[in-house]
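User: Here's a chain of 109 residues. Predict its fold as tokens.
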Amino acid sequence: MTFALSSTPLHALPPDNADPSLAPWFKSLKQPGTGAECCSIADCRTAEVRRDSQGYEVKIDQKWHVSTIFWLRVPAERILDEHRNPTGGAVLCYTPEAGILCFVPPPES
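Assistant: Prediction complete.
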């Protein structure tokens, strides 16, 4: 029994302030090129973002279960521009193992 529990993959938990009504929107996000899910409300979170002439950078910090805080350039092929963003901020779907899966820019102000 212990072996079965320990071999089960662990999934990230949603952030404490996750809005469950947004779960279907997060689930609808698909990776560009493959159509695979970007993850879920558990792996996608609002993110601190900055934009420059080369595109977007996102801040990776402890909420992504990493020990070092750093800024990561968002590859253009991971940006989902066509999605209406109901979160009010930039959304990053990221895992330390796979990197950036999807990025939804913040709503234009």
